[in-house]
């Protein structure tokens, strides 16, 4: 699942003797759900986080890692707390931000949707995710999320002040710093995780990470929580 500290702390004690729990989290997914949308290559070149602790059976952990590698995944290890802290930034915070933007859209002019283009679709895709599922994920990881949410609020405040004052120099400085930080973080991601999706989109093929804005007024199929 998307949060590890809580289940790793509680589940092992509930299992019968000889049954071992090993936490893992594939950092891959699609907005499509159901076996009819299964993909044999879904985990190829993607990162999977395995979260063993001191009490985890070493043999069981090795089998779980081997399973993911057999599916083509790149396996990394994190403690449960480190996992939750990192995905708070790279998975959970983007959802919070997208949902916040979607809430703010209630104040947009009525005709704004007609002018929505690819940037709108790219940014809002994950705001179509299952509210019940994501409410549980965000609440469970609240301890790790509080700080990142505040940092976004602070950054928005800086940008808002520069916009309101018409300070183009400050805006350029902030936007350049944002791009530089993004490049540093993205550089650490395995290139296989991002590039094939972009190339697939350029070739005209389906892209599970970037969806066009819905034209019927209905949201697209729900996104996988691990995307």
Name the features.
227 residues, single chain, mainly alpha, elongated, 5% strand, 52% helix, 6-phosphogluconate dehydrogenase C-terminal fold
Short description:
The chain is mainly alpha-helical and 227 residues long. It has eight helices and three strands, in the order H-E-E-H-E-H-H-H-H-H-H.
Helical coverage, percent range: 40-55%
- CATH superfamily placement: 6-phosphogluconate dehydrogenase C-terminal like domain
Order of strands, main sheet, comes to 1-2-3
Task: Give me the count of strands.
Answer: 3
**SSE ordering:** HEEHEHHHHHH
Structural class: mainly alpha
**How far apart are the termini?**
12 Å
Sheet with most strands: 3 strands, mixed
Question: From the 3D coordinates, which CATH architecture would you assign?
Answer: Orthogonal Bundle
Q: Tell me, rounded to a whole number, the average pLDDT.
A: 85
Q: What fraction of the residues are assigned to beta strands by DSSP?
A: under 5%
Cα radius of gyration in angstroms: 20 Å
Number of helices: 8
Q: What is the CATH first-level class name? A: Mainly Alpha
Give the overall form: elongated
At CATH level 3, the topology is 6-phosphogluconate dehydrogenase C-terminal fold
Low-confidence stretches: 193-224
Structure report:
The protein is mainly alpha-helical and 227 residues long. It has eight helices and three strands, in the order H-E-E-H-E-H-H-H-H-H-H. It has a three-stranded mixed β-sheet with strand order 1-2-3, covered by helices on one side. Helix 2 links the parallel strand 2 and strand 3. It starts with a helix and ends in a 25-residue tail after the last helix.
């Amino acid at each position: 699942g998307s949060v590890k500290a809580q289940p790793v702390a509680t589940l092992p004690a509930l299992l019968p003797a000889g049954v071992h729990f090993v936490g893992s989290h594939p950092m891959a997914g699609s907005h499509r759900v159901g076996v009819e949308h299964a993909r044999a290559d879904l985990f190829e070149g993607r990162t999977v986080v395995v979260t063993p602790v001191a009490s985890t059976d070493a043999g069981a952990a090795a089998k779980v890692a081997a399973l993911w590698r057999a599916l083509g995944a790149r396996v990394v290890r994190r403690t449960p707390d480190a996992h939750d802290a990192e995905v708070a930034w790279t998975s959970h915070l983007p959802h919070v931000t997208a949902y916040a933007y979607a809430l703010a859209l209630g104040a947009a002019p009525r005709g704004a949707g007609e002018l929505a283009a690819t940037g709108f679709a790219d940014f809002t895709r994950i705001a179509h995710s299952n509210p019940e599922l994501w409410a549980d994920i965000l609440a469970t990881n609240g301890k790790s999320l509080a700080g990142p949410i505040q940092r976004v609020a602070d950054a928005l405040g800086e940008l808002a002040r520069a916009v309101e004052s018409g300070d183009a120099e400050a805006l350029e400085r902030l936007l350049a710093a944002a791009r530089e930080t993004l490049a540093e973080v993205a550089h650490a991601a395995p290139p296989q995780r991002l590039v094939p999706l972009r190339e697939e989109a350029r070739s005209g093929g389906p892209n599970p990470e970037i969806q066009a804005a819905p034209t019927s007024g209905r949201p697209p199929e729900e996104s996988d929580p691990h995307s």
